[in-house]
UniProtKB/TrEMBL annotation:
Catalyzes the interconversion of L-alanine and D-alanine. May also act on other amino acids. It is an enzyme of class 5 (isomerase). Residues 238-366 form the Alanine racemase C-terminal domain. This is Alanine racemase. It comes from Saccharothrix ecbatanensis. Its cofactor is pyridoxal 5'-phosphate. Pathway: Amino-acid biosynthesis; D-alanine biosynthesis; D-alanine from L-alanine: step 1/1. The modification N6-(pyridoxal phosphate)lysine is found at K36.
Amino acid sequence: MAAPRAEVVIDLDNLRHNVAYLDGLAKDADTMAVVKADGYGHGAVEVARAAVEAGATWLGSCSLAEALTLRAAGFTVPILAWLDPPGTDYTPGVEQDVDLAASSITQLKDITAAAGKAGKTARVHLKIDTGLSRNGCPAADWPALVDLAAKTANIEVHSIWSHLAVADEVGHPATDAQAERFDDAYREALAAGLDPRRHLANSAAVITRPDLHLDLVRPGIAIYGLNPVPVPADLRPVMTFRSTVALAKRIPAGESVSYGLSWTAKSDTNLALVPVGYADGVPRSLSNRMHVWLAHKRRPVVGRVCMDQIVVDCGDDAVAEGDEVVLFGSGDEGEPTAREWADTTGTIDYEIVTGMYRPRVARTYSGTRR
Ligand SMILES: *Cc1c(COP(=O)(O)O)cnc(C)c1O
């Protein structure tokens, strides 16, 4: 087999480890593995399979289409889909037992209409906005929403739920304020005659707020082994991004490298050309600010990141065409991590790994159970 040009390797053993660990942290709650955006760029179906093997009893997706992809792949566990535009036909979702979120009366009516068409009860999770001001029903409209849901025949309210804004900032008072508003919303739901379960916790809250685990937790980033909080957690990064040296050469002192000639060799040096660039998910803003793991060492990428290529300075070390190059990985051996890329470019590791979902990057799996 040819050496990879641009490849992410997804370690499903690490994913299973992370899910089992998080499930253990939230012993009294069920665990929903969040696999939206094609499993944060890791492959939703493969991730979901490994997550269920490791103890997840729910799957979470953003759109109904994502949920239906999981159903088509054969998953029978509950799947929650939480955000689609108005006018979405939820009928296939109801038919295929996808749990649906409603943040408004309009959404609840769309789901009710779909339940009518499907000729079966739709299972709904009513979402309250407790302070994120994004998706979710404003508190002022909540009594009407829970009232209508309680009265609608072909709607079964499974849960009420909300999403946290600053759970990654440990000890931030806004999380407590959100939890209080969530309690208020729960009391109003009970008063309307509902008896819902409750869920609130993202990865950060799974790790730091056991009091908010409630009935179900919804970890996303942590199942991929990336820790959103500065608190130790036994998580193992799942994605490694690698390539192969395509060309090795020596240049004399004074020669410069790549578009703009932004880096100049101070002495004669060996260069390794790696055939990945910003079309493969290497941010151009990492030009002259990144390293790769190559021939047992971290080595600097010199000059600009191009669409298809980067150049690594290897000094006097012999580096051969065909050598493996790790762009980012677990960090265990000293290789860069997705977090390091995020810190350098001013983003979060969520965006780095999710951004690896692109047609030019091959995806392979290790630790697959057959
Ligand atoms: C993405 C998402 C999650 C998971 O968040 P992480 O920070 O990745 O753990 C949980 N709930 C909702 C509603 C989400 O959109």
